[in-house]
Structures are given as C-alpha cells and as structure tokens.
Amino acid sequence: MGCTSGGGQPAPSVSEDPGALHVSIERLATVDHPLAIAIRRGDPTIYVAEKTGAVVAIRDGTVGRTPVLDLSKGVSVGGEQGLLGLAFSPDGRYLYVNYTDLDGDTRVAGYEMHGDRAVPASRRQLLFVDQPYDNHNGGDLVFGPDGDLYIGLGDGGSAGDPHDNGQSLGTLLGKMLRIEPTPTGAKPYRVPAGNPFVNDGDARPEIWAYGLRNPWRYSFDPATGDLWIADVGQGAWEEIDRLAAGSPAGANLGWNLLEGTHRYDGAAPPGAVPPVYEYSHSEGCTVIGGAVYRGSAIPALGGWYVFADFCTGALQAIRLDADGAVAHTDLGVSLPNVSSFGAGPDGELYVTSLDGRVYRLTRG
Questions:
Q1: Is the pLDDT assigned to residue 3 strictly greater than 60?
Q2: Upstream peptide bond of 295 is cis (omega within 30 degrees of 0)
Q3: Is residue 338 within 8 Å of residue 353, measured between CB atoms?
Q4: Which residue in 16, 34, 41, 58 has its CB near the most CB atoms, within 10 A?
Q5: What is the pLDDT of residues 194-217, one digit of tens each?
Q6: 76 Cβ partners below 8 Å, 6+ apart?
Q7: What is the rounded CA–CA span in Å between residue 164 and residue 171?
Q8: Predicted model pTM
C-alpha cells in the first residue's frame, strides 16, 4: 500500500502485518439502523443515532423505551440520508444533531438536556446547508479537545464532485468545519478566531480543512489530540487522513484533484496533505471510520486506529510509527454493513452495524 501515482505527496510506506493482534466482539444491544455513537460527560450511557431519526440510550445493555430525542417526522431516510450524527457539549448540557430534512438538506441543531432527555422546545438551529444531491452528506459531529464543534460535510454528491466543491472555499460542502456553539447568544455560533480563512473575504470562515469527498466518521485521539478522518473514495481508492495536533489549520486533503494520493481531475494542489493509509477497490469499497483505541481491555491494541470496510466487513487497524511507516493488521473479525465506531464512557471501543446491532470490542 502507499502508492504515489498522480503527482501527490507520497503516503507513508506500510510495514508488514504484525499478525498476532486479534480481537473479539460481544453484542451490547440492538437498535434501528445505528449510524453514530456519542457519550456524555459523567454519564455511563451510550447514546446512538438511528438513521430513522431517533436518539436512543443504551444503559447496562438495555435500550431505553423512550427516545432521548425523536426527529423521525422531519428526517429523510433514503440512501445516504437520515439522522447522521450526534454529539454532546463538553459539559453535557446540550445535545447536537446532524440530519437531512425532508427536502434532503443538511441541518445541524442543538437541544438543551433535562435529565436524560432532550427538550424539543429548546431547539436551536446552528446550520443549514443546501444539498444538491442525495448522497455524500457526511454528517458526523465531534467536539474537539479545544471545546469547539467539528462538522464534516461531503462534497454535495452525485459523482466526481461535478461542482468542484471540494476545492472551493466559497462553499461549506466538501469541508471540515469548526464552530463554537452559543446556546444562549444572539447568534447560534461563533467562528473561532484561529480558523484559517476568517480574514479571507472570498472564503467561508467556518472552514477548518478542505478537499474532502465524504468524511464518513472522524475522531480525535484522546491521548494526542490528532484528528483522524476516514474519507470515502470515488471509484478506485479509499483513504484515511490524519491531521496531527498542532499542525497548521487549513489543510487541503486533495479531493477532487486527487483520490487518495492518485491524480483524479487535474494536477495535485500545492501542499496537499496525503493520507496516512489508502487501499484500492480490489480490497474493499467504502472505508468506515474509526477511532484510536485507548481502552484497557485490549492492551495490545493501544494506539492503533481501528476501522472497517463496508463491503468486506473486516475490522482492521493501522498504527503510524515514529518513522512515518504504517503498520496494518486485520483484527480477525468481520461484520455485515458496518456503519460506525465510537468510544464508550469506559474508554472501550464500540462498533455498529446497519442490521441494528451494537457491539463492544473485547480481547481475542
């Protein structure tokens, strides 16, 4: 792996499979088409976003009878649409969701939590983004170590990014955004002063990074602060990107000029940040991210980024060594229709399948 065709910067070389690192899984619960996992400060509950529009709570392996939030009457569910992401504010007082409305457009909204339920009347819309097509919505939501909310949006859909959204700084599509929600302010959010394009009149100030096709799950490593992004490829290559903590904002991840490290529609943009790992469609079809394991139940897995491919179902892991080489291993477990990963309140790693099941990774 790690081919460098197309004029992009080379991805790190991949070392031999370490071989002995295998895991097992145990079923935690069954819900309706789970797409995302979130946790709340001081709360042992695992919260899950169902594609059909509800946020449900799993406590001690039991799914709560009443949803934490039910948006099912206002959510489109065709294809890649639905309730796509959720996150709690760092203090746990607010729940934020990302979904496609009945017109297929992206909405990000926040709700005040009262006990273990969201208060529907407290709804505050943060963001509306017109979606030109019904695919490539991204949809994940994650609060970073800086306390800001990161919103990943796909390029708007169709195929090949026909509107060149990935490289355009004038649109939010094909971007990683960073905002600071203001639950009681005059405006729903502020743009952090450190965002890279706040002084560029031709760019959207919310943009943190660009050149994304469809970031399907991203996460911060709790030990290092590095941001890991699984970006779904077009027709040939899947990629995993890593933006190291402390690196300059405004990274260009290359799409649609590059697909992974490979030329797609033009010359490689100057300074494009290459993926740390890529694989071809001879090995899978859609990358599903992904989190760096920092739990205690599987010591050998510590520091490895765990991900899967939607078509093969194989759970895999990579580790970026100090010299830049990438170790890769198959974890010995396969699941149908893997849809997401997330760290639980216990620090252990959970994985969801569109068949409804939520699993916890355990020692093999």
A1: no
A2: no
A3: yes
A4: 34
A5: 999 999 999 999 999 999 999 999
A6: 82, 100, 101, 102, 103, 104, 134
A7: 10
A8: 0.95
The correct answer on CATH 2.120.10.30 for the domain covering 5-363 is yes
* Whole-angstrom distance, CA of residue 278 vs CA of residue 350: 23
Tell whether the model's pLDDT for residue 4 goes beyond 50: no
**Per-residue pLDDT tens digits for 289-329:** 999 999 999 999 999 999 999 999 999 999 998 888 999 99
